[in-house]
Automatic annotation (TrEMBL):
Residue ranges constituting the PEP-utilising enzyme mobile domain according to the UniProt record: 383-454
Reaction(s) the record says it catalyses: pyruvate + ATP + H2O = phosphoenolpyruvate + AMP + phosphate + 2 H(+)
Name of the molecule in the record: Phosphoenolpyruvate synthase
Keyword Nucleotide-binding: yes
Function per UniProt: Catalyzes the phosphorylation of pyruvate to phosphoenolpyruvate.
Upper taxonomic lineage: Bacteria, Bacillati, Actinomycetota, Actinomycetes, Kitasatosporales
Record-annotated Pyruvate phosphate dikinase AMP/ATP-binding domain positions: 20-341
Chain segments carrying region Disordered: 789-813
Organism: Streptomyces goshikiensis
Listed EC numbers: 2.7.9.2
Length: 813
């Protein structure tokens, strides 16, 4: 093979070399050669070539013997038998003498460049059909870490060659339609980063669940990165907002979730690696600082821009030097292939009851079937098609079983674990990181696995009915009246990013407080008033926080930011907390701070709390979170809305408190709206308009207080009617008065979703916007489009909604 290069340094490679060194090594070369000027750090190394692999196959007829085994597979031979035979033949064939010499020479040169003899290296397989935009092959072949010395390096290279024919790799190529003998293998040899002493993880340049393109998601765990990819640990997760990342004056980190990280991979005493328990301090602390997250995100954005497509990268931090490195990069192959023009949704149509288990939702589908609990993937025949796979973790050996499953449930793993990555690619719903699935579920048990309810995936007992719908977004008509969406759960916000909504008309802080904060804010400020049980619960929830009030503002800010980012730069109206006293009391530590009221629905709620001695400090924490989202994170599309504001004096007092806490109306474009849900808001609309920038009609409370009907009363349900003339005339009057004062006005509620006639009534009033649940958006949009021609035929003026798209919409920071 005179003139053929068997080994090439990364610095001499580029992405055009995929056919020679595979996608993984071509990308490492591309970044080494072209992104060094952008300060993207890639550990040095070299790659063997496809020609070198061909030399191995052709030396003693190995290629022909592999062809014979593949023919046996197509004739019905067992996959595991064929795979074992090919691997055995490959390992029995000596590496060509010329290849061995060139690998050793390149390794010795790498050591000289690094200033040390026999440096530790990572040895990674890189198939020539791997890491392509149309197929990932991620994890199909072997990787060996902490390889030291020429002899061990040659052994690792040989084993990488054999791993081209692992059972999972053969199965994957069969499923993807690749010719086995047309796929060659390159081996990358790269200086090890001492992440065993620090941490490592994965980066996606879009949200891996929804495909939302405006974020970068970074997973991080202690030790070597293999525990993150394999799903052995529940990693930290950091979400970075790309538009804010481009402004050095902003903090683009819009969400942080600290994972359990109970295990880590470290160097073994005599080479390779081992897994050990992490310390309590490692589990409770973040792996990355804000500055490190930003640096990795900057690099990821640079790599994405260079490649021109969403990317999936791996990173590592050296515990000796503190330096960060990018150790792998490949095109993202799941969300980037999905059509953003079609919205597919699943929903349970039966009442599910209490879930048996919960974890991280992967995908947005629902699956059901009999549970099959498995410790290892060796017994393929035991797994029935359509079963629910339940196991501790998965690795590539599980893939032949995973493709048979209707759903997958694991004890461990995060959104970038092997189980998550492969489940997305297969389109199989998975709930990962449940902690106890293998102990809670049993063989043959019929369950339903739902990933259709946000970021939390749940496993229910029994086979529950569900439906699937598909909406072609191109069929949704344009309307003059803005149609917005209501959002509460930040973990579900990104899934609706492709809806052509005009913003978020109502984001409820109560959901974030109840589900993500869980603690009454006053309990964090006055822990001395708590009993022993509540103090213990607060200690557990706020572990790692020296300033417990920071826990409240962090969780609240991250929740608001995810919702605001999902619609940027369209307006997102965030309503400050509107719990009733009985609901506040149910929060951890809430009972000592809440009175017992006979009728909390019309009691101490909304604006009246914000300036009172009993909650003023708690409201200050809400303001702190809102100010952080707008001023520090740059999400100035957030509009603050005050609920249940009974009087003009109350409005003035609340606005004064907000100003004291750094939320001054008009500063940095801040707009403040008011809920219009009390007859006083209608009667004094012009006066309220002097204090607020817009109104949002809360039709449930307005109906309740106009008709004097408890909206929760079963006995009076027949009287509660949002179409009663007293209510509809109040709405008409409010729309006219708001618009006369130059204020925007919308309605947020369920009624437009259920009643086309009510939607038509709203359109006829000239209302600026309606805001509905996301799954009702397409239907309401159709209703609005149908009503608008009739309205304009009657000679009415157009809605004043242009204020939303101009004055209310901020320009990007």
């Amino acid at each position: 093979m005179a003139g053929t290069r068997r080994v090439i340094p990364f610095a001499e490679l580029g992405r055009q070399e995929v056919g020679s060194v595979g996608g993984k090594n071509a990308s490492l070369g591309e970044m080494t050669a072209h992104l060094a000027d952008a300060a993207v750090r890639v550990p040095p190394g070299f790659a063997t070539t496809a020609d070198a692999y061909g030399e191995l196959l052709d030396g003693h007829g190995l290629r022909g013997r592999i062809e014979e085994q593949i023919a046996r597979l197509h004739e019905g031979a067992a996959l595991d038998e064929v795979g074992a035979a090919i691997r055995s033949m490959t390992l029995a064939e000596p590496l060509p003498t010329g290849l061995r010499a060139e690998i050793v020479s390149a390794y010795e040169q790498l050591g000289r460049d690094e200033g040390r003899e026999d440096p530790e290296v990572a040895v990674r397989s890189s198939a020539t059909a791997e890491d392509l935009p149309e197929a990932s092959f991620a994890g199909q072949q072997e990787t060996y870490l902490n390889v030291r010395g020429a002899a061990r390096l040659l052994e690792a290279v040989h084993r990488c060659y054999a791993s081209l024919y692992t059972d999972r790799a053969i199965d994957y190529r069969e499923r993807m339609g690749f010719d086995h003998l047309q796929v060659a293998l390159s081996v990358g040899v790269q200086i090890m980063v001492r992440s065993d002493l620090a941490g490592a993880g994965v980066i996606f340049t879009l949200d891996p669940e929804s495909g939302f393109p405006e974020v970068i998601v970074i997973s991080a765990a202690c030790g070597l990165g293999e525990t993150v990819v394999s799903g052995q640990v529940d990693p930290d997760e950091y979400t970075v907002f790309k538009p804010s990342l481009k402004d050095p004056g902003l903090n683009p980190l819009i969400d942080v979730r600290v994972g359990a990280k109970r295990r880590k991979a470290v160097y073994a005493e005599h080479g390779l690696t081992r897994t050990v328990d992490t310390t309590a301090e490692e589990r409770s602390q973040r792996v990355l600082t804000d500055a490190e997250v930003r640096l990795l995100a900057d690099w990821a954005l640079t790599v994405e821009g260079h490649y021109g497509c969403p990317m999936d990268l791996e990173w590592a931090k050296d515990g000796l030097t503190g330096d960060l490195w990018i150790v792998q990069a490949r095109p993202e192959t799941v969300q980037s292939r999905r059509a953003a023009s079609t919205l597919r949704r699943c929903r349970l149509t039966a009442m599910p009851g209490t879930p048996l288990l919960a974890g991280i939702a992967v995908g947005e589908a629902i699956g059901s079937g009999p549970v099959v609990v498995m410790d290892s993937p060796v017994d393929l025949d035991r797994f029935p098609s359509g079963g629910v796979l339940v196991t501790g973790i998965t690795d590539p050996d599980w893939e032949p079983i995973m493709k048979r499953a209707s759903a997958i449930v694991t004890d461990h793993g995060g959104r970038t674990s092997h189980a998550a990555i492969v489940s997305r690619e297969l389109g199989v719903p998975a709930v990962v990181g449940t902690g106890r699935a293998t102990h809670t579920l049993h063989d043959g048990q019929q369950v339903t696995v739902s990933c259709a309810e946000g970021g939390r995936g749940e496993v229910y007992d029994g086979l529950l009915a569900y439906e699937e719908t598909e909406t072609d977004l191109a069929d949704i008509p344009a309307t003059r009246t803005h149609v917005m969406i209501n959002l509460a759960d930040p973990s579900a916000a990104f899934r609706w990013w492709c809806l052509p909504a005009d913003g978020v008309g109502l984001a409820r802080l109560e959901f974030i407080v109840a589900h993500q904060v869980k603690v009454h804010p006053m309990a964090l400020l006055h822990p001395d008033r708590l009993d022993a049980a509540d103090r213990c619960a607060v200690d557990q929830l706020t572990e790692g926080y020296l300033d417990r009030t920071r826990y409240f503002s962090d969780r609240l800010a991250y929740g608001i930011a995810r919702i605001a980012a999902s619609r940027w730069p369209a307006p997102v109206v965030v309503r400050t907390s509107d719990f009733k006293t009985n609901e506040y009391a149910r929060l951890v530590g809430g009972r000592p701070f809440e009175p017992v009221e006979a009728n909390p629905m019309i009691g101490w709620r909304g604006a009246s709390r914000y300036y009172s001695d009993g909650y003023r400090e708690g409201f200050a924490l809400e303001c702190r979170a809102l100010r952080r989202v707008r001023d520090e994170m740059g999400l100035t599309n957030v509009i603050v809305m005050i609920p249940f504001c009974r009087s003009l004096e109350e409005a003035d007092r609340v606005l004064d408190v907000m100003a004291e806490e750094g939320l001054r109306r008009g500063e940095n474009g801040l707009k403040v709206h008011v809920m219009a849900e009390i007859p006083a808001n209608v009667i004094l609309a012009q006066d309220f308009a002097e204090r607020f920038d817009g109104f949002s009609i809360g039709s449930n409370d307005l109906t309740q207080l106009t008709l004097g009907v408890d909206r929760d009363s079963e006995a009076l349900a027949h009287v509660f009617d949002e179409t009663d003339p007293a209510v509809t005339r109040s709405i008409e009057m409010l729309v006219q008065r708001a618009q006369a004062a130059g204020r925007s006005i919308g309605l947020c509620g369920q009624r437009p979703s259920d009643d086309p006639a009510f939607t038509e009534f709203l359109v006829k009033t000239g209302i600026d916007s309606v805001s509905v649940a996301p799954d009702s958006f397409a239907v309401v949009k159709q209703h609005v489009a149908a009503a608008e021609p009739r309205r304009y035929e009657q000679g009415r003026t157009a809605p004043s909604g242009t204020r939303w798209s101009q004055a209310e919409q901020p320009s990007p920071s």
